[in-house]
């Protein structure tokens, strides 16, 4: 009898852990803008290619905007 209880508790714990893993391993970040059902760049609104999303599921920007962001020069405090 107690074995049955243990089994069901183990099964429950297992499915709970699976649910936790799903959340835990979900990509961080907002991801693309999906407001119209199409993954779009949050910067320029262009559609993000499926190939990019396959590699970066939580990409928030298209490749062009992402490169822009990464190549942004260090802010120069004073320039004459
Ligand atoms: Zn963009």
Distance between the termini: 83 Å
- Please, how many helices? 3
Low-confidence stretches: none
> Helix-strand pattern, N to C?
HHH
Overall mean pLDDT stands at 84
Question: What does this entry look like structurally?
Answer:
By secondary structure, the chain is mainly α. The protein has helices at 2-24, 50-55, 63-70. The structure holds zinc ion. Zinc ion (ZN) is lined by residues 41, 43-44, 46, 61-62, 64-65.
In short:
This protein is an all-alpha fold and 80 residues long. It contains 3 helices and no strands.
How do the strands and helices of this protein lay out in sequence?
Elements (H helix, E strand, L loop, with lengths): L1 H23 L25 H6 L7 H8 L10
The structure holds zinc ion (ZN).
Zinc ion binds next to helix 3.
